[in-house]
């Protein structure tokens, strides 16, 4: 498991093709990508899977998935929490990080294809989505986590969610710049959001238990460019022993014996963005333990019981694997998406 990734036979073109094919065969006829066959889907994980399709060269399938987002966008620019079989499954809320992620997915597609006409096709959808997101920005720059469809804006914030939005705002402004649109308000919103994440911890986890036990709260500020350089290295080192299990991967939470593939892949990209390539390669090499012959990956592994759990191989996990693999191998021009974030 400690061989250099470039030497491993499973890291060839077939490796990418198999995992992308797994996502494509799970995609529904309407373009939506459920977590697994006949399962639910949510906008964020749908987009993660679309990026996996794009890395695998399945551009028509990816575009079909983006068309689903266009067709199902609400008038206020959002999407609801979950869908299934063409119907709304959870219509209780619209989560801001879910809504914002379309900008990341579209920018990723453009980086791979250089298809400016696709940006033009998606522009109104992106603009409506980002305007919805920044309409939920609080006084210290934080962005509230959701709009409840009955109770209105829920005024609390998530570090992971806001970090994801920080990256999506960068992608949205990149798209706007290429299309010569005025994106000054988004740039300002991103600058204020970055300040909230760095300087105003009191804005987060006000009405629920702290999410600091979750690995994503640890590495997402590095993954998305909020924390960079030497500070990023220190940040990851500080809690490494809490979350990383040698030869297995990254725990989802620091107090449970459960490593998860998607979080491990995102940690790989966070390490790459902090210039820690050898660590990134090492962590990624462990994940082949969880790969099936069809290119899919199990969600996670409970190591005291030596048990894959839950018994699911989600499309969004496959998407995360392909994003990490691309970052390591530079297979596509989008390989640096999470590695070279612009500071505000």
Please tally the helical runs, counting DSSP H or I stretches of 4 or more residues: 13
> Which fold name fills CATH's third level, the topology?
Glycosyltransferase
**Fraction of residues in H or I helices:** 40-55%
What is the first-to-last residue Cα distance?
Answer: 39 Å
**Rounded average pLDDT:** 95
Q: What is the number of strand segments?
A: 10
Indicate the CATH class: Mainly Alpha
Pairing-aware structural class of the strands and helices?
alpha+beta
Query: What characteristic shape results from the CA principal axes?
Result: globular
Cα Rg: 19 Å
The strand line-up of the biggest sheet is 6-7-8-9-10
**Proportion in β-strands:** 5-15%
Please, how many domains? 1
Low-confidence segments, ≥5 residues, pLDDT <50?
Answer: 1-9
Main β-sheet, in a few words? 5 strands, antiparallel
